[in-house]
Amino acid sequence: MAGAYDASLPSVPDWLNKGDNAWQLTSATLVGLQSMPGLVILYASIVKKKWAVNSAFMALYAFAAVLLCWVLLCYKMAFGDELLPFWGRGGPAFDQGYLKAQAKIPETVRMFGNGTMEKEATMPFFPMATLVYFQFTFAAITTILVAGSVLGRMNIKAWMAFVPLWLIFSYTVGAYSLWGGGFLYHWGVIDYSGGYVIHLSSGVAGFVAAYWVGPRPQADRERFPPNNVLLMLAGAGLLWMGWSGFNGGAPYAANLTASIAVLNTNLSAATSLLVWTCLDVIFFGKPSVIGAIQGMVTGLAGVTPGAGLIQTWAAIIIGIFSGSIPWASMMIIHKKSTLLQQVDDTLVVFYTHAVAGILGGLLTGLFAHPDLCVLLLPVPNTNGAFYGVNGGKQFLKQLVGAAFVTVWNVVSTTLILLAIKMFIPLRMAEEELGIGDDAAHGEEAYALWGDGEKFDATRHETQMQQFERDQEAAHPSYVHGARGVTIVL
């Protein structure tokens, strides 16, 4: 075929599938939009007005810092050659020869006991550059989710040090173990698109970080209203729609699994949102936008471990459980537990991501369908407990995988924060906590005067008003124009 479809063109090697490459780049862009601007907008609007700039900046900084660290070192730690059974050998991923070659995850090759090859390494039909960027977007959103637990009080300088350290010593371990050919991957633990690697790890790490950083001031804990509910919905909408790339891009191809995953993802999110909203109406008498967003997130996180491996009716069931169990853990168990109440998880990331992620992983161990597993998974004869005798073993594997990710994040996050604390305070000073964005960044989110203060002309006099008063004193006949209107909020 001639023109752009000619496989002999220098930029179109014979292994390149343009459709797969286009879909993978689209998926990567969708996942990137979840973070920038999705979570930037959501974080900025869901917090108290005085923390809007700081919350948005934490997400913005993490997105940029993760990308640089990813290509310098971390991509190969997560998807490169083996260093340890749970960690890859780090190195740069920016050489043009490396990035132009066909994508490959070397440690995903499977061998029989006699040394013969059982399954070749994963080699999608697009270049390494596409794979490196796609996986970066997952690393970025995971780190940004951790920030949700410490909004409103973490020292921004401590956060700037935390991001690269946590990426190196925590995220890459989970990614390599479950996706990059590590011991959990070869053992057969299912994590289709990040229920454990992303949601469980970010929820646990966020909870641990919230413990070590300490709580917000009591006034903020008692009253922390969102400053812009409509912008919250805009950020949440980007998060929801971006999830089609999140789970649709996981098979590394525009194939059957991708289509099933996209449908299941959206269906679970819708079901969970409705369940959460109904529970709010039943127990509190009215629905809330924040509750609906939390239900949406738990439905998305809950279906992620098995989105392309379960039947659509199972996605509805996962949505029901994702909308009810995290709700109960947040509204009932949290309020009855003194220990849980001592940890100030600002955006309840532990419940919306860790609880939902582990719940989805365990339900995948029950509902994973053998006909769908064979299309994607490396270990033969993999299926959920409801589809054969091996299902019980699969459920046990899911438990072990969740335990490993949980313990590793507790230990690594603790050590990282204690190391940072030796040089940088983890928490802002009390004076800065009382002021907010202006103390942390010298900026405020909205150019609006008020916040309940009475207007004081001596404090808020403009340069033009001073000029006009000076003119009146010098020239009694001077007549000034309209001074405008002061709106007291």
From TrEMBL:
<keyword id="KW-0813">Transport</keyword>
<feature type="transmembrane region" description="Helical">
    <location>
        <begin position="158"/>
        <end position="176"/>
    </location>
</feature>
<feature type="transmembrane region" description="Helical">
    <location>
        <begin position="313"/>
        <end position="334"/>
    </location>
</feature>
<dbReference type="InterPro" id="IPR002229">
    <property type="entry name" value="RhesusRHD"/>
</dbReference>
<dbReference type="InterPro" id="IPR018047">
    <property type="entry name" value="Ammonium_transpt_CS"/>
</dbReference>
<feature type="domain" description="Ammonium transporter AmtB-like">
    <location>
        <begin position="22"/>
        <end position="446"/>
    </location>
</feature>
<dbReference type="InterPro" id="IPR029020">
    <property type="entry name" value="Ammonium/urea_transptr"/>
</dbReference>
<feature type="transmembrane region" description="Helical">
    <location>
        <begin position="346"/>
        <end position="368"/>
    </location>
</feature>
<feature type="transmembrane region" description="Helical">
    <location>
        <begin position="196"/>
        <end position="214"/>
    </location>
</feature>
<keyword id="KW-1133">Transmembrane helix</keyword>
<keyword id="KW-0472">Membrane</keyword>
<feature type="transmembrane region" description="Helical">
    <location>
        <begin position="399"/>
        <end position="420"/>
    </location>
</feature>
<dbReference type="GO" id="GO:0005886">
    <property type="term" value="C:plasma membrane"/>
</dbReference>
<feature type="transmembrane region" description="Helical">
    <location>
        <begin position="252"/>
        <end position="276"/>
    </location>
</feature>
<feature type="transmembrane region" description="Helical">
    <location>
        <begin position="22"/>
        <end position="44"/>
    </location>
</feature>
<comment type="similarity">
    <text>Belongs to the ammonia transporter channel (TC 1.A.11.2) family.</text>
</comment>
<keyword id="KW-0924">Ammonia transport</keyword>
<feature type="transmembrane region" description="Helical">
    <location>
        <begin position="56"/>
        <end position="78"/>
    </location>
</feature>
<dbReference type="GO" id="GO:0008519">
    <property type="term" value="F:ammonium channel activity"/>
</dbReference>
<feature type="transmembrane region" description="Helical">
    <location>
        <begin position="288"/>
        <end position="307"/>
    </location>
</feature>
<feature type="transmembrane region" description="Helical">
    <location>
        <begin position="226"/>
        <end position="246"/>
    </location>
</feature>
<feature type="transmembrane region" description="Helical">
    <location>
        <begin position="132"/>
        <end position="151"/>
    </location>
</feature>
<keyword id="KW-0812">Transmembrane</keyword>
<protein>
    <recommendedName>
        <fullName>Ammonium transporter</fullName>
    </recommendedName>
</protein>
<dbReference type="InterPro" id="IPR001905">
    <property type="entry name" value="Ammonium_transpt"/>
</dbReference>
<dbReference type="Pfam" id="PF00909">
    <property type="entry name" value="Ammonium_transp"/>
</dbReference>
<dbReference type="InterPro" id="IPR024041">
    <property type="entry name" value="NH4_transpt_AmtB-like_dom"/>
</dbReference>
